[in-house]
Design a protein that fits this description.
By secondary structure, the chain is mainly alpha-helical. The protein contains 3 helices and no strands.
């Protein structure tokens, strides 16, 4: 009888600590929820960076057509010999 009583008490003590740990953790602090939240934040950050890059390219689109030739001084003059 003593063994049965001691076993039941040990089981209750172990189960109580396990339930106490489970009760303290909220659903938002679970590892999968944290990873999902971080992925969502990273996706939003990448989207903001993409939108800023698109805006910069739209603003700088006029200067792309007015580029100069960096090799203009290095080429021989074209005397029509081609």
């Amino acid at each position: 009888m003593n063994k049965l009583l001691f076993g039941a008490i040990a089981l209750v003590v172990l189960a109580t600590s396990a339930f106490a740990q489970k009760g303290m953790a909220s659903k938002d602090s679970e590892p999968l929820m944290i990873l999902e939240r971080e992925k969502k934040q990273q996706a939003e950050q990448v989207d903001r960076q993409y939108q800023r890059a698109i805006e910069r390219s739209r603003k700088g689109g006029d200067t792309a057509a007015a580029r100069s030739d960096p090799w203009a001084n290095m080429r021989a003059p074209n005397d029509g010999k081609r």
